[in-house]
Design brief:
The protein is an alpha+beta fold. It has 5 helices and 7 strands, in the order E-H-H-H-E-E-E-H-E-H-E-E. A 7-stranded mixed beta sheet has the order 1-2-3-4-5-7-6, with helices on both faces. Helix 1 crosses helix 3 and helix 4 packs across helix 5. The radius of gyration is 15 Å and the shape is globular. InterPro entries: Acyl_CoA_acyltransferase (IPR016181), GNAT_dom (IPR000182), Ribosomal_N-acetyltransferase (IPR051908). This is RimJ/RimL family protein N-acetyltransferase.
């Protein structure tokens, strides 16, 4: 595993080429809130986090290899975690380490108590990320997501500040 050089930092406008390249992966592009097919789209994706949550570029050796974010922070000190990595970083421990670092930040800096995330049940790699980052499975949400007209069940996970 190459997790010792992982860093989280604020997204910058000059990261737009990395975002654009990442969203060329069909696995990521279908999860984007809109198509990211130009540098302007990538800049829009970066800007879209302003005021809705905290998103961080995940870097490995100074290169952007992913994103971790906490959003939907509510009055009960709960937040929703999301993450992605570029294909080259997958299976190297990058995502679990980044999600774990995000959780520590959210509990310490934002004072959150509960972090939640969900993944399609047909995405075992995302489940491994959640479990390795200390998120416990809490159950299945049937038919929660729809991609290309197909409904997918989602497994929800959570991590508490006291875990």
């Amino acid at each position: 595993m190459l997790t010792t050089n992982i860093r989280l930092r604020e997204w910058r406008q000059d990261d737009a080429p990395a975002v654009l390249a990442a969203f060329q992966d069909p696995e990521l592009s279908r999860q984007a809130p809109w198509p990211v097919v130009t540098l302007q789209d990538a800049l829009g994706w970066i800007a879209s986090w302003d005021g809705v949550g905290h998103a961080f570029a995940v870097t490995l050796g100074g290169r952007v290899v992913g994103n971790v974010a906490v959003a939907r922070i509510d009055a009960h000190a709960n937040g929703w975690v999301s993450y992605w990595t570029v294909r080259e970083a997958r299976g190297r421990g990058v995502a679990p380490a980044a999600v774990e670092e995000l959780a520590r930040w959210a509990f310490r800096e934002r004072g959150l108590f509960r972090l939640e995330l969900g993944h399609r049940v047909d995405n075992p790699a995302s489940c491994r990320v959640a479990v390795k980052a200390g998120f416990l499975a809490e159950g299945i949400e049937r038919g929660k997501l729809v991609y290309d007209g197909v409904r997918h069940d989602v497994e929800r996970h959570a991590r508490l500040a006291t875990d």
